[in-house]
Amino acid sequence: MAAPPLPLDIICALACEKSLLPRVRMAIAMIAQEVFMEPSSTPGYPARWNLAKTVLSPSEAQAASMMVGIVASPPMLAAAAAAAAAAGAADPVAMAAAITDEQLLGAVRVGWNAVAGVRADEDASVLQET
């Protein structure tokens, strides 16, 4: 596996950035609504649906714990690295502000199966169908 595009302490600072947490909470709730609309034949659906039910009203602690995985996902790491490069510094507040809503929603979508506990072979089936 390749080295992350940013040092781990910078990634950690972004995962702990308080200004990003409300957006993560809203992205989680929006993706949960998408999961509720999936057909029950979707691979991994029971686990995906149970996660959606659990996180529909995410607590701050729950969103904060999910944020670590979201920030560590490839889409968010790429967005954070681009933000850091554009700003010329790895300031977590500036990086959080530079991450678009679509990048955030994409990172939650990518990480949903892992958080739900969907097996990798089921995950590959879902990605091929979408």
How does this model look, in words?
- With 130 residues, the chain is mainly alpha-helical.
- 72% of the residues lie in helices and 0% in strands.
- It has eight helices and no strands.
- α1 runs antiparallel to α4.
- The longest helix is centred in the first third of the chain and has 16 residues.
- The radius of gyration is 15 Å and the shape is globular.
Low-pLDDT parts are none
Q: Give the biggest sheet.
A: none
What is the count of helical runs?
Answer: 8
Helix content: over 70%
Give the strand tally: 0
Explain the layout of strands and helices.
Layout lengths: L7 H8 L5 H16 L8 H11 L4 H12 L2 H14 L4 H7 L2 H16 L3 H10 L1
In short:
This protein has helices at 8-15, 21-36, 45-55, 60-71, 74-87, 92-98, 101-116, 120-129.
Pick out its properties:
single chain, 130 residues, mainly alpha, 8 helices
